[in-house]
Design brief:
By secondary structure, the protein is mainly α. The termini are far apart. The chain has helices at residues 16-22, 51-61, 82-86, 93-110, 116-119, 132-147, 153-170, 173-185, 188-191, 209-220, 227-234, 241-253, 257-268, 289-309, 327-333, 361-366, 375-386, 401-404, 414-421, 425-439, 473-481, 484-499, 505-520, 525-534, 552-555, 559-562, and strands spanning 28-29, 46-48, 192-194, 197-199, 205-207, 322-325, 344-347, 453-454, 457-458, 463-465, 468-470, 541-542. Strands 1-12 form a two-stranded antiparallel sheet. The protein has a two-stranded antiparallel ribbon with strand order 2-3. The longest helix is centred in the middle third of the chain and has 21 residues, at 289-309.
Length: 564
Amino acid sequence: MAGIKSIALPIVGLGVIAAAVLAIPDARSLILGGNSFEGEMPPPQMRRLTEAQYRNTIADVFSDEITVVGRFEPEIRIDGLGAIGASQASISASGYEQYYGIAGSIADQVISADNWADYMPCSPSESAEFDRECASQIIEQYGEALFRRDLSSEDVEVWADAMHASMAQVGSFENAAGLVIEGMLSSPQFLFIIDGLEDDGRGDVRLTNHSIAARLSYFLWNSAPDEELLRAARAGELHSREGLETQVERMIASENLRLGSRAFYDDFLDLSRFSSLEKDRLIYPAFNQAVADDAHEQLMMFLDHHLIDNEAPYPSIFTAKETFLTRSLGMIYAVPVVPSEGWELVRFPEDDIRGGLLSHAGFTALHSHPGRSSATLRGIAVRQSLLCQTVAPAPAAVNFTVVQDVDNPEFRTARARLTQHRTDAACASCHRFIDPIGLSLENFDGAGMYRIREHGEMIDTSGEVDGIAYDDLPALENILANHEAATSCVVERLQYYATGRSNTEIDSYWNVELMRGFERSDYNFRELMATIARSEEFYAVSLPEAEGGEDLQQANIPTQERNS
């Protein structure tokens, strides 16, 4: 809020979680009590909100009419996922300034004269007078929704006292309320999803109901818990199997599930790079920002259509023939699109090279250079993102001259240039691993447009993957659809995405069970999301250990008490 940045508001409850942890006996547990599975429990987490989660939360807590303008901290990707990076991310000083500015802008909109009645539960009798009852209602309403936890009466009093004290400087009750909203939105309790722990009554620890609600909601909906989920949390229903199952079923059936599935696709396939995707307009005049935006959205619609709407087996994304086009994408696909605006569902003939995920312009254009295609980038994308296989980085001081010289009359196709490049022994092993897959996509240029020749030479799309030879892209797609690594990869990545952590002992055992269930469901992705959401392992937590191997609670006990 302009002009009042210097007023300090309390960051209520920063020590609440630590204090709760220190007050709980040494134990390891999960939400439902007991240890019914193998492996050590993971410690509690703090996960920084992603930009999408921040925006979704503001839209759901306030409304989608509130504009969010500002620059967010850059994503950190660890082990192939931004979700894991978020659990290890901090906020820089400059980043916090940005968040603070965004918070002030949102607060200004919420408390404006035009919007006050829409967003506030009450109004003061006099603008110049402090109304503690109304202030408490505002703090209770938004404190729970934004902090994703119960506010104690002491919390409410601290915020209300600060709001009262600020009125002399900001001039009105409304401005003071805006300062509270700004303070909440710039608090670590909002900017991070923080696991809260409690004693389960049997000497073990577990997540609080509100922390279960937050973990569940940000996984399935990529946003804050809605009022029904908060009600269940307040009622203590999420610690029972029946209560949790009721919420999982409701949320899986909701249209909001698309927010969760799309957030996963974005992370899984690293589609955030669309925001900076550029092509050389002289080489690809049909490719512009509208095409890039539509290509991104097309991938989302394609995956949701098959995996969420039709609940088709996950491997079908490699061979499916139905997708969506706009007029601008129609130029890339050379397919007439009837609607001048919006999307049209199209089905390619069975013998058409188009259809599966790999043939989508969004995939081929994203994994290309600005002025040329790249068999290497495409091969790496398939190996790393879709098969979860490791590709070694290129050695230092590698000479890429032959590969980059697309006008070399001696090596007219990408296959010829890469074959020559592989004569360098330092490059041969990796390129034999990744190039055959990428070369099978060479019928699509750097913008994703179909071609059969490069510089007059016929393009050869045959190859071999993991010992299996094939003639063309459709044959490769069939191989990938039946590749065990493709299904195990999506299970592993969704599991890591949901928990925000890489493989731990408990995750190894859990992964086996998830994979078995995925097979039994005929690789139903929607059911996989539900299975994770209702799994005990998803909510498993233990007390973190202090240095020297002691847990935090034990480390806080005086020496004489520990030795008694």
